[in-house]
From TrEMBL:
Keywords: Kinase, Thiamine biosynthesis, Transferase. Signal peptide: none annotated. Residues 16-264 form the Pyridoxamine kinase/Phosphomethylpyrimidine kinase domain. This is Bifunctional hydroxymethylpyrimidine kinase/phosphomethylpyrimidine kinase. It comes from the Bacteria.
Length: 277
């Protein structure tokens, strides 16, 4: 007899040839969190642990058609965006999202990726306004890091009060909720991620800061684990709690790889099936 079909989560994002971030991290998080991962590739990056040396943006209609073809066949239980590269791709994603119900019938997480952790741009400068004005209002949840917060709402977050104010402004852009991630607040012993929903309820997710330079793909992994929780039908705060639990373990198990920043790891979650054969 066939196994039951798992929920389906869709990542609309870029690839990372080094396998640390982007769609590779997304699908690992989907798998580790118990859902099937489908992908709409928006860009192919030439990337390793040291940085991004180039990228090729996929034609916008091909990005949109990947979303439509997945929705029309297996259905989508939740979706997330990562690197979208250009205004034209964002607009194509918005059109397809409206057609298939992302952000209305289907939970839709927007990770407003602007640059890699090495500081290399992954979004055209002129696309930020489109992301803010056309994509974020459709989001069930928007998940910026502190650099993206500064770009989107002009707030320089240095503490929880600042994160709260930034989240309030992000929800004011039309998102259903905002998760302001505190990974970049280097000095603090706790990493605090603050969730604010449009109805005003606040949830603070805190964990001890790990001393490691190997956190490549951390933001993508968190957003994807939250998306997996939503695909499984969890309420938003529960899905974010799942995401925080996943990323905390993934940072704990991050490993060196290459000369630069190694990835957060999902390998701890891999079943020990081979030794049990
Ligand atoms: N040193 C750390 N120790 C524990 N958790 C961390 C650490 N750094 C980041 N995190 C967690 O990882 C997640 C991603 O946070 P961060 O603010 O680094 O996002 P990001 O910049 O988008 O990530 P990326 O490194 O993929 O660009 C958050 O949940 C954060 O709490
Ligand atoms: C393709 C891709 N998406 C997102 C990020 C940010 O982690 C990255 N470095 N590369």
């Amino acid at each position: 007899m066939d196994a039951a079909s798992p929920p389906v989560a869709l990542a609309i994002a870029g690839t990372d040839s080094g396998g640390g971030a982007g769609i590779t991290a997304d699908v690992r998080a989907f798998t580790a969190c118990g859902v099937h991962g489908a992908v709409a590739v928006a860009a192919v990056t030439v990337q390793n642990s040291v940085g991004v040396s180039g990228f090729h943006a996929i034609p916008p209609d091909v990005v949109a058609d990947q979303i439509r073809t997945v929705a029309g066949d297996m259905g989508i239980d939740a979706a997330k965006t990562g690197m979208l590269a250009s205004t034209e791709i964002i607009r194509a994603v918005v059109a397809a999202a409206d057609e298939v119900g992302l952000g209305t019938r289907v939970p839709f997480v927007v990770d407003p990726v602007a640059a890699s952790m090495h500081g290399h741009p992954l979004l055209a400068d002129d696309a930020l306004g489109t992301l803010r004005d056309e994509l974020i209002p459709r989001a069930t949840l928007v998940t910026p890091n502190l650099d993206e917060v500064r770009l989107l709402v002009g707030v320089d977050v240095t503490d929880t009060d600042g994160a709260r104010e930034a989240a309030r402004l992000l929800v004011g852009l039309g998102a259903g909720a905002a998760l302001v991630k505190g990974g970049h607040l280097e000095g603090s012993p706790e990493v605090v991620d603050l969730l604010l929903t449009a109805d005003g309820s606040e949830h603070v997710f805190s964990s001890p800061r790990r001393e490691t330079k190997h956190s490549h793909g951390g933001g993508d992994s968190l957003a994807s684990a939250v998306t997996a929780g939503l695909a499984r039908g969890m309420a938003l705060p529960d899905a974010v709690a799942l995401g925080k639990a996943y990323i905390t373990r993934a940072v704990d198990h991050a490993y060196p790889l290459g000369a630069g920043h190694g990835p957060v790891s999902a390998l701890w979650s891999v079943a020990d099936w081979e030794r049990q054969r």
